[in-house]
Amino acid sequence: MNLQRFVNLTSQYTKLRIAVVGDFCLDRYLDIDPGKQETSIETHLSVLNVVNVRAQAGAAGTVVNNLVDLGVGLIYPIGFCGQDGEGFELRAALTALRGVQMDHLLASPLRRTFCYCKPIVIEPGKAPRELQRLDSKNWTPTPRAVVEQILKSLAAMRGKVDMVVVLEQVNEPETGVITSEVREALADFLPDTLVMADSRRGLGCYPPVIFKMNAVELGILAALPGLVGLKQIQDTALELAAKNRRAVIVTLAERGIVAAQPDGTLVHVPAFPLRGQIDVVGAGDAVTANAAAALAAGATLAETIELAAAGASIVLHQLGTTGSASVSQLHELMFPGKNAFTGSGASARPASPNLADSMGA
User: Fold this and answer.
1) For residue 96, what is the domain's CATH number?
2) Residue 291 CB: number of other CB atoms within 10 A?
3) Which helix (H) or strand (E) holds 53?
4) CB count, 10 Å around CB of 190?
5) Residue 267 lies in a domain
6) What is the tally of structural domains in the chain?
7) pTM across the whole model
């Protein structure tokens, strides 16, 4: 992709309308200063003193954060949270973002808010160090009333959006947003609307939408556990694309991204070189968001995964946070030293903090 093509594609992002349906969670970071040592008088245990609390939308919310930073015009989160403090913070974080329409994120007394609470040790001159995470999830089936509301919200998006992005983050089936009925409803968007799905539990039960997965997930889906060879991964992706008649995108960590089309087209984009310390959290969601925006803007599959690989590389180097990538950052990475960029997709959020940089690492 040359610079002019990059500008032409990314300048379309402001015109896009993208729905993100899935498991929205609150990413709550507890920044701990180990220099403030205390011992509890009551228990005689060491005290971890939290000096700063940061909260942002996570899981499906991370995809939204990336779409906002890419300058996507309208973004529709579809999911649920609880009527609790975490839900208040989650809704506040999303409401503050430009272009995010909040009519379809249900606040329900029947569910608790999915939350990742991440204690992070912050020391001058060192990379942030995450301690044992504290998760809050729903462990019971999603109530019928909540499922029906999600289905109504999905139906409201038909004919209204250019792309539907699906992110299933929970491990227990039927406890999150993407229940079996919601998966089936995705087929109603086909073939008129692009739909891309990514699921931590695997995509075997999904209708034939665009599949985005990693190599392990591809191996499980294809009944080929231990799938590691690049040629075998490529062949398997081609077979799946032909079967579903939809594109397949497979992330390969340090080996880059492979993508296959039903017509037999196969593309492999290597990963960008590492430029320092990395934090892998959020890189997969950056791939999802960048691929969704690019495809909706009319990019070829090769252009799509080139942009997605750049987005992932930027997020990899944002330490101590679930990061995101803007169009201006993509431009800087993909076309260093070239100043012809005139696109309109600049970040509409404060840049994701790199805590290691802020502490002098």
Assistant:
1) 3.40.1190.20
2) 29
3) strand 50-59
4) 15
5) yes
6) 1
7) 0.90
